[in-house]
Amino acid sequence: MADEKTFRIGFIVLGLFLLALGTFLMSHDRPQVYGTFYAMGGIMVIGGVVWSMCQCYPKIAFVPADSEFQGILSPKALGLLENKLSTEMKRPSPQPPYVRLWEDAAYDQSLSDFTHIQMKVMHYSEDPRPLLAPELGQPQPGATDGGAGGPVDSQAWVEAAVVVHRGSDEDEGERIPAQSRSSPPACPQGPAPLASFQQDLDVGSSQGSSPNPSPPNGEEPRPLPPDPWTSKCQLDHFQDFALIDAPTSGDAPPEGPQQETVLPSYRQWYPRTKEEEPSDTGVEEPQEEDDDLYYGLPDGPEDPFPDKELGFEPDTQS
Amino acid sequence: MEELVGLREGSSGNPVTLRELFSPCPRIRRGIRDGLEWLKQKLFHVSEDWHLLMTLGVLMALISYAMDFAIGRVVRAHQWLYREIGDSHLLRYLSWTVYPVALTSFSSGFSQSITPFSGGSGIPELKTILTGVVLEDYLDIKNFGAKVVGLTCTLASGSTVFLGKVGPFVHLSVMMAAYLSRVRNKAIRESENDSKQKEMLVAAAAVGVATVFAAPFSGVLFSIEVLSSHYSVWDYWRCFFAATCGALMFRLLPVFNSEQETITTLFKTSFRVDVPFDLPEIFFFVVLGAICGIVSCAYLFCQRTFLGFIRTNWFLSKLLATSKPMYSTLATLILASITYPPGVGRFLASRLSMKEHLDSLFDNNSWALITRNSSPPWPPEPDSQNLWFEWYHPRFTIFGTLAFFLVMKFWMLILATTIPMPAGYFMPVFVFGAAIGRLWGEALSLAFPEGIMAGGVTYPIIPGGYALAGAAAFSGAVTHTISTAILAFELTGQILHALPVLMAVLAANAIAQSCQASFYDGTIIVKKLPYLPWIRGRGIGSHGVIVEHFMNCTITTLAKDMPLEEVVKVVTSTDVAEYPLVESTESQILVGVVRRAQLMQALQTESPSWAPGHQQCLQDVLAGGCPMEPITLQLSPETSLHQAHKFFELMNLQSLFVTSRGRAVGFVSWVELKKAISNLTNPPAPK
User: Where is the composition biased (Acidic residues) (chain A) (predicted)?
Assistant: First the structure.
């Protein structure tokens, strides 16, 4: 929440400013003046500090555990997946459905239909990045019921990342970013590159995950209206709360090496997708307007596009 | 962000987020959260935002006062240094020049390092923002600190650099208003509402001007005149409310600080109350207005030319591009060397600060008459009771000093406006106009020593009144506003000169508006900001121009039944931002608008679920997830230019499609409108 952070900092800065002003307005025959300033400034500083400290609570990340991942999707399934994604994006969810705890991700709902979940409690800093890697595959074979899929899943998860990475070198790799881009058009225009990255992650993961074909996902009641499905999800949560305490130990070590393997592959993949897109269309769209409408500052830094309709274009400012 | 919810085993009730499950002291937290919810409901009620306006006014007043306080301290330190440094000329010169040089270079370096948007006044960009153009990051809160620090340093250089406070302060208050409305949207979880935010921004502009001068009326009117092309009366009370809160707080703070006993005006004048001026003097006021208008045309022309020269000259633009502080240093060095008091500065009254300039120019004595017989001394320090002694030189008299001041400050001010640091350009223009008025008043007072009306009771001419009129007229002509007249009254409390000052302002505006673009419009032109100009030349011919004459007929439409290969060909061969979507290739009925980026993304997702035999067309892609925006407003080819222009201005539009009987026939955007308007004023030569 970059916004909330600026609000917290602004609150504290305002409190300090009031304190400083109260110090300068010190006049002995009017103590109520600087008293008021001190009081307000002190309240704001203390409130802001307490608020900031409350932000550092432990966050909980859910890890999809087992065999619900599909194999290499059949085209039909992929199409259904796409439709599902698009419909999921389009409808507003009435209750908070099961999603992963990172920001701004209208998340892939198909992955959320797990009867067995694994959870990992970890400390959360403001940066959502560390959430990405540790979510991937915490192999806890003993902890869950669907244990057969556990280590395989995590392996497959890491492999998924690698597959995506390699896949993007070939033509086939274009499918993957292409498919993942089916979801963003239906999404609201958020931070577009980051959104597509995370959804690429999701679709890539769902594709490259464990080879078990997923009957639950296939028979997943897509024709059903969404509400029963999400409430079913929540019931699943409540059943599995007994598992909360289980996977807390021994999770930290496997994280480490996987982090390194996973993150660089994403980073290498991500800029490539951005370059692929213009080469796909074959036409670069500089979107330069005429000189009259060009927001020009005299020097150095590039001029941002003034028209808000154009502001969406990634990487076209040159 | 969506969160997981859960329940403790065995507990009933609503599921709470997992964060709360595992956090300590759940009851206290719940209590605090309920309390905050209640507070939030009270504070951020959906339809009321008067508390936000009040907060904005009070905050900006606090910031303005704190800045004035800091500036006052720095200036006092500089004066102390200059006084204590001794008699060596070199040391005194160094102490006079190094101070402003260091401050301005720090100001430009610091503010430019944080953001390039922090330089200059900020009002031209705000004007473009309020017409609906989005300038990325211009209202970001991180520019706030940069601009405050930069502005404080600029103003601490004092009258050496001769710059003011209004422009950047308006920018600061608009930034603060955008920030507060984001807080509000976050608190009540409402998505950004453009019209509500625009109301806040307009009110913030009024607050900015009002808290600089502690003048609510002129604050609101000045912000209306300078920043808006159309103003809705709905915003009126909000602007006044916020401006009054700000002005009141700004006037209360010196009282709290025991600097003043009660709320008074910023510049005290003691003009004669019963007969402030004689009737024939109105003619001279109007002539003064005309003179101010002519001088303002010259000033605007020179300023714009010099700004363009700076940008195009190879050496200067390179210097500005590589090292802005170096340019500021050089410019300030020139300015400080000229205003060095034992040197040329003696003739410029350079020991006075900006406020003292105005105080001395509004003096109610007639200097010409006093100095005809006696010769006041030049005190080692400016005498606060008789500040006008600074203007007197035994050989040149006040006329020489005033004339020299006008000539030198003309180009020095133009040079100072090009320094890339946050600075306002209204106050120096105000002071310059006051000097013009004073010179004219002194000349009149010398020409008519006994007053104009002969016989009976004589009322000598008060040049201070002319200084007031000159200040209002010149600044009004430069900014193309009338509300500077009201500003003059609010600053001095002198409303008795209302009519002559207003007539002078009108005369100056009449001349300036017919010859030159205003100061801020000129900056928009030079910086090439996107802006829709007015329609000038409202002659007979302009009413016959209709949209059909100037619309862009070459539009590429995408039909719903177009095969995909053709769609791809069209999309790749053109590069407009959005495509009009028509029902079918024959009918060309306009049904919507498709954005290029989304269309390309949708095209790339080759969905395998389409039946192989079916000819894929655009309809499928659209159904597959590319959103189509509906058409809400359209033009007709018979719409006149004036109607279209007014439509664009009122609704803050950037472009519209033209449809005739439903068929999409053309496209009108600012480019076409500007071309049509320029063809009106400068008709192209007939072939």
Answer: 277-293
In a domain, A36, yes or no: yes
Please, what is the average pLDDT of chain B? 85
Tens-place pLDDT, residues B155-191: 999 889 999 999 999 999 999 999 988 888 887 777 7
C-beta atoms of B2 and A309 within 8 A: no
Q: pLDDT per residue over B456-511, tens digit each? A: 677 788 899 999 999 999 999 999 999 999 999 998 888 888 899 999 999 999 99
Half-sphere exposure of A57 (CA within 13 A, CB side): 17
A-interface mutation test, from B23, B183, B604, most A Cβ less than 10 A away: B604
Residue A316 lies in a domain: no
Query: Taking CB atoms and an 8 Å limit, are B608 and A79 in contact across chains?
Result: yes
Is position A67 within any domain?
no
* Token reading at A278: 């213009």
CB burial class (10 A; 0-12, 13-18, 19+) of residue B99?
buried
CA-CA distances (angstroms) from residue B355 to B106, B218, B270, B473? 24, 19, 16, 19
| Cα gap B366→A314, rounded to integer Å | 66
Alpha carbons B524 and B518: distance in angstroms, whole number: 10
| A14 vs A65: which has the higher pLDDT | A14
What tokens appear for B133 in the block?
Answer: 């153009």
Mean pLDDT, rounded, for B37-45: 76
Q: Which residues of chain B have a CB within 8 Å of the CB of A29?
A: 258
Angle between helices B236-256 and B216-227 (to 10 degrees): 130
Other beta carbons within 10 angstroms of residue B211's beta carbon come to 35
CA-based nearest distance B338→chain A, Å: 28
Partnered with residue B579 across adjacent β-strands are B594
The mean-pLDDT minimum among A43-52, B193-202, B348-357 falls in B193-202
Beta-bridge mates of residue B578: B595
Residue A42 lies in a domain: yes
Q: Minimal CA–CA distance to A199: which of A31, A280, A57, A86?
A: A86
As a 3-state breakdown, chain A gives helix, strand, coil percent values, each rounded to 5, of: 55, 5, 40
Burial of B514 (0-12, 13-18, 19+ CB in 10 A): exposed
DSSP, collapsed to helix, strand or coil, labels residue B658 as strand
Q: What is the pTM of this model?
A: 0.71
Q: How many CB pairs under 8 A join A and B?
A: 193
Mean pLDDT across chain A:
51
Q: How far is CA A1 from CA A7, A104, B41, in A?
A: 10, 10, 22
ipTM above 0.90, yes or no: no
Test B23 with A57 for CB contact under 8 angstroms: yes
Which residue, among B10, B151, B9, B189, has the nearest Cα to B70 in the 3D structure?
Answer: B151
What's the total number of domains in chain A? 1
Task: Give chain A's largest Cα–Cα span.
Answer: 83
More confident residue, B430 or A308: B430
Which residues of chain A lie closer than 8 angstroms to B63, CB-CB?
A: 17
pLDDT at A282 > cutoff 50: no
Instruction: With beta carbons less than 8 A apart as the criterion, state whether B122 and B161 touch.
Output: no
Query: Domains in chain B, start-ordered, CATH in brackets?
Result: 41-257 (1.10.3080.10), 279-527 (1.10.3080.10), 542-681 (3.10.580.10)
Q: Is B148 exposed, middle or buried (0-12, 13-18, 19+ CB in 10 A)?
A: buried
* Structural domain boundaries, residue A35: 30-58
In terms of Cβ atoms closer than 10 Å to its own Cβ (0-12, 13-18, 19+), residue B540 is exposed
Chain B residues touching residue A185 (CB < 8 angstroms): 598, 601-602, 625-627
Q: Compute the CA torsion angle B251, B145, B419, B486 (nearest 10 deg).
A: -20
Measured in residues, chain A has a length of 318
Average pLDDT of the residues in B234-248: 90
